[in-house]
Amino acid sequence: MADTTVKVRLVKGLRGVQQRHRLSVRALGLNKINDVRELKDSPQVRGLIAKVYYLVRVEQ
To answer: Most buried residue, 20, 40, 51, 53, by CB count within 10 Å?
Structure first.
């Protein structure tokens, strides 16, 4: 199995968002709008993305 990665972009601001969701975005390494991180594709990362699906976009 190859080491796959997933690109995640923060597309919305964090104003008015639950503290838990802010922490999840922070855990993904995203700080400002349009920040992009390439992360190892794992169930943990997918879980964080699922929690904040309305704030981020997954790019291939």
So the answer is: 51
